[in-house]
Amino acid sequence: MNNFSTFRKVYYGLLIDANKKHPTVKITQTGTLLFRWPFSKFSDFIQLLNLSLSSDLLPNQDVIDVIIHVARNPHGRHLAWKYFRDKWDILNSRYGEALFINSKLINGVTEYLTTEAELNELKHFVRNNGGGTISSFQRALEIVEANVRWHSLFEEQFFQWLRKSLTS
């Protein structure tokens, strides 16, 4: 059984138990599973993201958490960002009225963007899709601009320090 098949079996098991109101599992425990699950294959991330929007078993809040947790994984960050942009119309129609959730999603997907190219993609995306969520996107732009600035100023120094520390 591959990594994703195991995840789906465990995750759905937790959801089904939680939905049946069994005292052994709380719905919030599924977030812990998402955070700790060691996905490493690109196809696992794609399946997980696609499952998040198409499953009736996933509560709306968990859909957001799935996307954010993929974005927090170094191997899934770019995929989550692309998925967010590709599925924006669906996500915004589903969560656009819930300002907190929409803000959480926008910040969660963009907070680890660190390159000038990603910043430009975000700016382009906001220009074309920002609409009523412009304040959430403004905060995201500020964070990504700070990330890009930090990387341009300190990335090389950090890696020099790290190499020096490892050889000492």
TrEMBL record:
One of its GO terms (molecular function) is zinc ion binding. One of its GO terms (biological process) is proteolysis. It holds the Pfam family ERAP1_C. GO terms for cellular component: cytoplasm; extracellular space; membrane. Residues 47-143 form the ERAP1-like C-terminal domain. Belongs to the peptidase M1 family. This is TRHDE protein. It comes from Polypterus senegalus.
